[in-house]
Amino acid sequence: MSVKVKICGLTSVEDAKNVSEAGAEFAGMVVFFPKSKRNISLEKAAEIMAALSDNVKTCAVTVSPSKEQVRQINDAGFDYIQIHGRIDDDAYSAAELPIIKAFNVTDIAELDRYKSSEKVCGYVFDAAEYGSGKSFDWSLLDSIKRDGRMFILAGGLSPENVSEAVRRVHPDCVDVSSGVENDSGSGKNRQKIFSFVENARSV
Ligand SMILES: O=C(O)c1ccccc1N[C@@H]1O[C@H](COP(=O)(O)O)[C@@H](O)[C@H]1O
Questions:
Q1: pTM for this one?
Q2: Alpha-carbon distance 70 to 95, whole Å?
Q3: Which of 60, 120, 150, 189 counts the highest number of beta carbons within 10 A?
C-alpha cells in the first residue's frame, strides 16, 4: 500500500483546494499556539475544512492543550487531534477525538507511556523544534516496534527528500509543513504540494 500524505499548517481556503486536488489524505491546522506563524482561529479552521474534499481527514495540531481547549476542538469539526508536548490527565479525559501523539526527538523515550492509551491512534515523529522545517536523525526510529497504530514521519520533509525518507523509514504516512511553503515562507505552494505527494507515492 502506498504511503499516506499529511499536509500541515493550512492557513487559507486556497491551501485547502490545493491539498484536496493533490490527493493528500490528511490536512493539519495549528490552533491555540500563537507562537506559530501558522496559528489560526477555530473559525478560520472551519472555513478551511469546509473547502476540503470529503475524503481529506482533518487534524487540529496543538501543543500541551488545556482541558478547555480540547473541549473546543472536540466541537470544531476535526477528525483527529495531534498533541505535541504534554497531555494532562484532564485534557486526556476531555478528548473525544482520536489522538495522534507527536514526539519532538527529546521526548521519544516517552512513547511507551502512550502505547497503552486507548485514545491514541497514531504517533508523529518530528524534529526538536515545532514546524521548523528541520530534519532529525531517522536512525532514532529504527528500534521502535510498530504496534498497528499510524506511524507518521515529520520534520524537515520536502519534495526533494520525501522519497528517500519513505524508502529509509517505511512510515505509514509522511507529514510536511515548511517544505511545501512558498519561498517567502508564507502560505503553501501548489506546485510543491503536488510534487511532495507525487514523490512520496513514487516509492
Ligand atoms: O507548524 C507549526 O508551526 C507547528 C506548531 C506547533 C506544533 C507543531 C507544528 N508543526 C508540525 O510540525 C510537523 C513538521 O513540520 P515541518 O514540515 O518540519 O515544518 C508537522 O506535523 C507540523 O504540523
A1: 0.97
A2: 6
A3: 60
